[in-house]
Design a protein that fits this description.
Residues 1-22 form the signal peptide. The protein has 121 residues and is of the alpha+beta class. Helices cover 17% and strands 43% of the residues. The strands form four sheets. Strands 1-2-3 form a three-stranded antiparallel β-sheet, with no helix packed on it. Strands 6-7-8 form a three-stranded antiparallel β-sheet. A two-stranded antiparallel sheet has the order 4-5.
């Protein structure tokens, strides 16, 4: 294989890796989580020293609307785009009434616990 072809292949692979989003899995280390005012996730999360931190995250910073569901998307602004009455249904799944019908987001895909603070994954 020629060096240019190898470099092109590596660049393509690196680009694909950058597009893969790691699961946040916030629910493994946070409890008492709920949605407040349609778009704020509130939870009590463990920090590195074993303590508990009350934290909140505006989910508009992490979630957007796709055709059939809510998806992890930086500055997705799902609430500003018409999703209402959002709440936790089962586990870490959020259900919202959105344009086109109800949509679901897996918050463990989109949200992480970073030393006790909720953050976009």
């Amino acid at each position: 294989m020629q060096p240019k072809a190898v470099l092109a292949l590596l660049a393509t692979a690196f680009g694909a890796i950058q597009d893969v989003q790691a699961r946040g899995e916030f629910s493994r280390s946070c409890t008492n989580y709920y949605i407040e005012n349609n778009n704020f996730l509130r939870a009590t999360c463990k920090n590195a020293s074993g303590g508990q931190v009350n934290s909140a995250l505006n989910l508009n910073a992490c979630i957007g609307i796709a055709s059939t569901s809510l998806v992890c998307r930086a500055n997705g602004n799902y609430a500003a785009n018409g999703c209402r009455a959002c709440l936790i249904r089962t586990g870490a799944y959020m259900l919202c009434g959105c344009p086109g019908g109800n949509k679901i987001a897996d918050l463990d895909e989109c949200v992480a616990n970073r030393n006790g603070l909720l953050a976009c994954a």
